[in-house]
Write a structure and sequence with these properties.
The chain has 2 domains: 437 residues, no CATH class; 115 residues, Neutral/alkaline non-lysosomal ceramidase, C-terminal domain (Immunoglobulin-like, Sandwich). It has 14 helices and 38 strands. A hairpin with a 5-residue loop joins β4 and β5. With 709 residues, it is α+β, with helices and mostly antiparallel strands. Keywords: Hydrolase, Lipid metabolism, Metal-binding, Signal, Sphingolipid metabolism, Zinc.
């Protein structure tokens, strides 16, 4: 999602319980075709926790200034008896990016050679959190608000993804896979129901809901039935944390992953494994976690159904989650996914059997010719974004002058003039993209280099009777359903009954993919569908082709054009850390101390003399610890990766280079009474550029049980 983006353009051009309830009974004699080599891994990908614009809302000023939840890459590697393998990776990011895939595969091939992990058998999907630092894309469209390419962000992601795959590779052991699915009805709603209603009535009648409530889950065990990992897919946006947030967060899916993993790994080992729980993304294009609906801030009444405005103003129409604030909403939506996963995990019993296969091909989405069911030939278009794109959504408003549903001929003439000043779209593009009112002809914008991708990776995995489809963007509910039905039918025609899993935001980011009917309506999702009204038709044709190739067991003759590496063209305008200074204090000094005594359920707050977190990202480490004194030593009970802590960095003076860091700890109700302290870990940069570590600690304080009444 890209919300108030047009303003930016104008501005910048086990622990398992002993009861064993998760154990799956396995026969002493196993069939070879249901035994796989399975491995899971996890890696820290938390980027700069200060001064970097967040990727997702494209809101100027929404720059990172601390951490609520760390971001992780979680990897699953599965190989059959022949050694054929696939690697599925889920990253806590707004979207995957082509340059990330390029760099990850390059690093893996340095380690394992050219044939073990390739573009063809590695799939990198994103959870779609909107609360992570941006700047890791190579196309200009997605790095305008970050002031260009951010090397720190990219390095953190690539190193963490590679670590997660290496750990999964090293952890591979023989085991079993079990599939099940259910429905989760209280964690998502449709934020563009007017668009959904444009789809044929007979098609809509096939489904009970206007969002995809399907919850698909895989359980992985060793040969003795001990759980070693879990993966599920459910469609819901990562926007529980809204566009006022400035703390890094993995949002609702990240909370669900952490909570599920804590059931096996213990409470304090967040992000350390060995059990890994992946909460994957699916066809979430029009699916929001803000399930209380959109209403007008000034009147409290429902917004305009078609345009999502209040008296013509989009900024007054806001959707709300189920909690009292964004933190509680994140927890609630995450917890509902966690509980559904826990329920399905306990009863997953459909054994996956069969070989592993994969197909992959890059296609130029700006130049696709599609044969429709009625025999007509249509074409896709060079990429363009519409006026409705700039309006944003009820999850995060865009520029106030725009509104959703704007079609060609209805656009604001002043912004037509501004657009034409930047670049007038060609006549062919205007006709091809109709009825979209083009605001940014990004496919024709090549200065100073390419603004938007045109080569799209298309990919499918087959593991027994599972088919995992890598969707390179945000497919809406009905778009995803059509893809799933197409693939299921092709397999059925070959006598195969398969479970089709849609893995969204895979390998790259290309905005939205609506149905042609939704595209005609030109709400936000349609205005953000890059390649014109037949974008979905082109993907349907391509994935049908991949499914047939998969079934034929014939290698695709050409993987398609090679992805460009644009790193040498990247522009970086964001300055680095100049220096840090401590005035009247030493680095690490506790400026504000905790109280002497707290009860469980209260909040502890400590402020330290700090330095810029960009000096050291603390990957696989932490900026803080909460510690309890026990048996003559201090025991870590929480870090900056735990839900109940927050690390908040504040710049006191840019000129003087001073800053402070506040650590918050919301004491869990089941906290053991005792003596506690909070520590802070930082790195400061002096005037000549030397970086030095430091640390500080608060005074000790007592935590008592929650008083009874």
């Amino acid at each position: 999602m890209m919300k108030s983006f047009f303003i930016s353009i104008l501005t910048c051009w086990l622990i398992i319980s002993a009861n064993g309830k998760y154990l799956t009974k396995v026969s002493q004699t196993d069939n070879d075709n249901d035994v796989y080599q399975i491995g899971f891994g996890i890696g820290d990908i938390t980027g700069p926790a200060a001064e970097i614009n967040m990727m997702g809302y494209a809101k100027l000023g929404q720059n990172t200034r601390g951490i609520h939840l760390r971001l992780y890459s979680r990897a699953m590697v599965v190989a059959d008896q022949s050694g054929t393998r696939v690697a599925y990776v889920n990253v806590d990011l707004c979207g995957s990016a082509q340059i990330l895939k390029i760099l990850v595969v390059e690093e893996l091939q340095k380690i394992y050679g050219n044939d073990v992990y390739t573009h063809e058998n590695v799939l990198i999907s994103a959870t779609h959190t909107h609360a992570g630092p941006g700047g890791y894309f190579q196309y200009l469209l997605y790095i305008v608000t970050t002031e260009g390419y951010i090397k720190e962000s990219t390095h953190a992601i690539v190193s963490g993804v590679v670590k997660s795959i290496r750990d999964a590779h090293d952890n591979m052991e023989p085991g079993h896979m079990y599939y099940t699915e259910g429905t989760l009805t209280n964690a998502s709603s449709n934020r563009s129901p007017a668009s959904y209603l444009q789809n044929p009535e007979e098609e809509r009648a096939q489904y009970e809901h206007n969002t995809d409530k399907t919850f698909q889950l895989l359980k992985f065990t060793d040969l003795n039935g001990k759980p070693i990992g879990m993966v599920n897919w459910f469609a819901v946006h990562g926007v529980s944390m809204n566009n006022t947030n400035k703390l890094i967060s993995s949002d609702n899916k990240g909370y669900a992953s952490i909570t599920f993993e804590q059931d096996f790994n213990g409470y304090t080992n967040v992000g350390k494994g060995p059990f890994v729980a992946i909460f994957g993304q699916s066809n979430e294009g029009d699916s929001t976690p803000n399930i209380m609906g959109a209403r007008c801030l000034d009147t409290g009444k429902p917004c305009d159904f078609v345009h999502s405005t209040c008296n013509g103003k989009n900024e007054l129409c806001v959707a709300f989650g189920p909690g009292k604030d964004m933190f509680e909403s994140t927890k609630i939506i995450g917890e509902r996914q966690y509980l559904k996963a826990k329920e399905l995990f306990e009863k997953a019993n459909e054994t996956i059997k069969g070989d592993v296969h994969f197909v992959y091909q890059n296609i130029d989405m700006a130049k696709q010719t599609v044969t429709l069911d009625d025999g007509r030939e249509v074409k896709t278009c060079p990429a363009a974004l519409g006026f409705s794109f700039a309006a944003g959504t009820t999850d995060g408003e865009g520029a106030a002058i725009f509104h959703q549903g704007t079609k060609k001929g209805e656009e604001n003439k002043f912004f037509d003039f501004i657009r034409d000043f930047i670049l007038h779209p060609s006549k062919e593009l205007l006709e091809c993209q109709a009825p979209k009112a083009i605001l940014l002809p990004v496919g024709e914008m090549k200065f100073p280099y390419e603004w938007a991708p045109e080569l799209m990776p298309t990919q499918m995995f087959e593991i027994g009777n599972l088919v995992i489809v890598g969707l390179p963007g945000e497919f809406t509910t009905m778009s995803g359903r059509r893809i799933r039905n197409d693939i299921r039918k092709i397999y059925a025609d070959h006598g195969r009954d398969v479970h089709v899993i849609l893995s969204g935001l895979a390998n790259t980011y290309s905005n939205y993919i609506t149905t042609p009917e939704e595209y005609e309506f030109q709400r936000y999702e349609g205005g953000s569908t890059l390649f014109g009204p037949h974008t979905l038709d082109a993907y349907r044709q391509q994935f049908r082709y991949l499914a047939k190739q998969m079934l034929s067991r014939e290698k695709i003759s050409s993987p398609g054009p090679k992805f460009p590496n644009l790193l040498k063209k990247e522009i970086t305008l964001k300055p680095g850390v100049v220096y840090d200074a401590a005035i009247r204090h030493h680095f690490g000094d506790a400026i504000v101390q905790p109280k002497e005594t707290y009860h469980a359920g209260e909040r502890v707050e400590v402020k330290f003399c700090a330095a810029n977190p960009r000096n050291n990202l603390k990957l696989e480490k932490t900026y803080l610890t909460v510690e309890r004194y026990e048996n003559d030593e201090w025991i870590v009970v929480a870090t900056d990766a735990n839900w109940e802590t927050m690390f908040i960095w504040n710049r006191d003076s840019v000129l003087l280079g001073t800053s402070d860091a506040t650590v918050l700890w919301d004491i869990p109700l089941d906290t053991k009474p005792g003596l506690y302290r909070i520590r802070y870990f930082g790195d400061h940069k002096n005037i000549i550029g030397k970086i030095q570590e430091f640390e500080g600690a608060s005074r000790e304080f007592k935590v008592n049980e929650l008083p009874s009444f």
